[in-house]
Structures are given as structure tokens and as C-alpha cells.
Amino acid sequence: MAPAGGTAVHDHVALAEIELCGELIIAASATDGDRLSPDRIDEVLRVGEERAQDAP
């Protein structure tokens, strides 16, 4: 049990990774094939969107 007084630490990076893993699991369960293609994985993880934001 966590101590009283709000001493729990929130790791935002870990929470973001958990969310992305969940999105991959949902996408994988919705596919008819055995595996997600690399392009579909990039789409689910929004890889292209992040690259576009980093571009000047």
C-alpha cells in the first residue's frame, strides 16, 4: 500500500509506453492476419505524425 500524503511517483514515460502497448494490442486483435505489418505498427504508434512535428 502506498504511504498516505501523496508520495506516489507518476512516471509519465512509463504511462505513455503502456498506452502505446495497449494500442498495439487492440490493433493486433482487430487484424485478420497473423501479424501487424511494419507500416500498420507505424500507423498505430503515430510514427509519421511525430516525424512531421519534428521537421522544421
UniProtKB/TrEMBL annotation:
Domain of life (superkingdom): Bacteria
Protein name (database record): Transposase
Organism: Streptomyces neyagawaensis
Lineage, opening ranks: Bacteria, Bacillati, Actinomycetota, Actinomycetes, Kitasatosporales
